[in-house]
Amino acid sequence: MNLDQVKRELEERLDRLTGRLSVIDSELRSPGSADSEDRALESENKEVLDRLSESERDELQSIRRALGRIREGTYTVCTACGKTIPEARLVAVPDTTLCVRCAGA
Ligand SMILES: [Zn+2]
Fold it and tell me: Per residue in 4-42, pLDDT tens?
C-alpha cells in the first residue's frame, strides 16, 4: 500500500461519514425541501454534528485534517518535530500527525 491508496481510503471513510451526516441532516430538516441533498453535503452545523457519536466526530475531524494535510503537502511531516513520518506509519495510522518518536513521547 502506498500513500495514494491511503488517500483513497481516507476519502472513502470521509464519504461514509458524510453519508451518515446527510442522513441525520435530512432527518432534522422539515420534509420536502428540494435541495436538502446539496446542503447536507455542506453540513457543518452543530446540531447535526451533535447527532454523531463522539468517535464518529473525532474520526471525521481527523480524516478532514489528514486530507487537508495531503492537499497542503504536509501530510508526511511530523507536526511536533518537523521530521518525515515514515510511509509505513502513515499506512498503519492514516490520520496520524506525529512520527513514532513524538507519538510515543
Ligand atoms: Zn516527530
Answer: 999 999 999 999 999 988 888 888 775 655 555 555 555
What would you report as the CA-atom Rg of the chain, rounded to the nearest whole angstrom?
16
3-state secondary structure the chain: CCHHHHHHHHHHHHHHHHHHHHHHHHHHCCCCCCCHHHHHHCCCCHHHHHHCCHHHHHHHHHHHHHHHHHHHCCCCECCCCCCECCHHHHHHCCCCCCCHHHHHC
- C-alpha 88 to ligand 1 mean position (Å): 15
**Confidence (pTM):** 0.72
Say how many Å lie between the CA of residue 57 and the centre of ligand 1: 25
**Beta-bridge partners for 77:** 84
- Please give the average per-residue pLDDT across 40-45, as a whole number: 55
